[in-house]
From TrEMBL:
It comes from Prevotella sp. GTC17260. This is DUF4836 family protein. It comes from the Bacteria.
Amino acid sequence: MKHIRFIIGLLFFNMLLACTDSSYLNSVPSESKALIAINPAKMSGVDNIVVLKSLLHLKKLDKTGIDLSHRIFLFESPDGNLGACVKIGDASDFSKTLETLNKQGICSEVSSFRDYNFAVLKDSWLVGYSDKSLLIMGPVTVAGQSQLRQQMVKYLSQDEDEGILSSRIYEKLDSLDAPMGMVAQADVLPEQLVAPLTIGIPKGTDASRVYICANIEKRGDCLFFDGMPFSFNRKVNESLQNALSVYRPIKGVYSNIMQSEDAVGIFMNVDGEAYLPILQNNKGFQVLLSGINSAIDMNNILKSVDGEMALIGTTEGKGQGISLVAQLAHTNWLADVDYWKQSCPTGGKIVDWQRNAFHFTDGKTDFYFGVTSKKQFYSGNTPQKALSVVNNQVDATTQDLNDLFTGQRFVMKVNLQHIGAEKGNMVGDFVNPVFGQVSQLVYRIK
């Protein structure tokens, strides 16, 4: 009887070990800058199929040699290469899968290199695998494939102490209970997104100290990231969390003002007196406002904000630049406009545009700004853009917009067609290949 109990216990232990085996993740570099986990078992059937088919270029998911009961991990390596790690269930079956893809012109023939098998997927992604782990890395040129192959051999040979399992970024990601989750350094994202994601860090702090931890969900052609920034550095993290306390629940007053030609929209509800010192420590925002601030006291305007505020960034066409719209506590700064007109830097001027509205230009920059009768500040690089942020407001938002903003304290919307398409970028290279057709990203802090 004791022997039977022992055998049953041993079998149960082995079954448990098999279900929780994560040794395939040793192939993910421990110093990865970004990590995304996709759990097929927790995803809806439609999303499951879209993600896996897009990532692996497969029409059918069964009998591929891939173990779909384990998570798929996407990462950015320390040297900036992008990668995916998947558990191999049967290496022989996976080799047959690649043979089929080769016949379809999707990948090269499989070749052996230092105990591992390799192929090139879609002419730019290198596939390497062992009997337990599959790595897909790139994008890479033909000239760079040899060096990347050497790097992948190193990753595939790593043990538990060398791989991602012993890292803080994995521990943080593993704490998320969601079908898809992400932990990423802020600086791996497109440059235009770094400034809003690092609001609140101490002055002079590098963006690589800030991480974004978020649950990911795809709805239609929109990818939602619900989470918040944090840092493994105690001082930086305290500063970030203190800044987050300034944000108040958003009602969605400006939920409809972002247009298809806009790249980024940032929405919040703040008291300008409390928020201004935080913005003044943000290098990205100071650079953004530097040209305007030389003639217009934007700090004084921002201090008057009390309520909803939206910042819209446009990267193309005549309207290229920023538009700001906000509810104000007062308009006392209007009394200073005459002084601003008189003290404009050489080559610049401020002239009346319409009632309580003005136009600043220095030959390079145009900025139209004003105040409505309802104490709303509005602005833009063209008259049309400035007026649009007021005219496009709606009294009753749609259900979709209500769902987008309700209960949130910070929302950032990104139109992918205007941002993040450069090669070697976590957004530009991974979003559509992995998640299928995506036109917009939404990052929210609740």
